[in-house]
Design goal:
- This protein has one domain: Alpha-Beta Plaits (2-Layer Sandwich).
- It is built from five helices and four strands.
- Strands 2-3-1-4 form a four-stranded antiparallel sheet.
- By secondary structure, it is of the alpha+beta class.
- Helix 2 runs antiparallel to helix 5.
- The radius of gyration is 14 Å and the shape is globular.
- The N and C termini lie far apart (33 Å).
- Pfam families: DUF1330.
- InterPro entries: Dimeric_a/b-barrel, DUF1330.
- This is DUF1330 domain-containing protein.
- It comes from Pseudonocardia lutea.
């Protein structure tokens, strides 16, 4: 399972309303011991992404699900608001941000990165 967006993924992502604000839902499953590494990534993320308008709305650890199929529980959830899809794309390509992305990759065995827009 892929945990990082590819160039093709980003092209499709940007083709849909590149200037529209977006909130990214991250569903995260850690490797054994990956939680501490991901917490390091979150600290790096907070230090390097404000200039792109990235705002961590919520970061929390999962608990036993109330309603879920087998395998649908997640170790953590992260919501990040961006002023636009373009801002997210620029952040992903930024060399300073990229110095810490290895922490994300090392921490995760599985991830979902779902763009969302406000309803109504």
């Amino acid at each position: 399972m892929a945990i990082d967006p590819t160039g093709a993924d980003m092209k499709v992502f940007l083709a849909e309303s590149p200037d529209e604000p977006v909130t990214m839902l991250n569903l995260l499953r850690f490797v054994e011991g990956g939680r501490a590494t991901y917490d390091e990534y979150i600290a790096h993320f907070r230090r390097t992404t404000a200039r792109f308008g990235a705002e961590v709305v919520y970061y929390g650890y999962g608990r036993a699900p109330v309603v879920a199929e087998a395998g649908q529980d997640w170790d953590a959830v992260l919501l990040v608001r961006y002023p636009s899809r373009r801002a997210f794309s620029e952040m992903v390509r930024d060399p300073e941000y990229q110095t810490g992305t290895h922490l994300r990759s090392e921490a995760l065995v599985e991830a979902v990165l779902q763009p969302t827009v406000a309803a109504g």
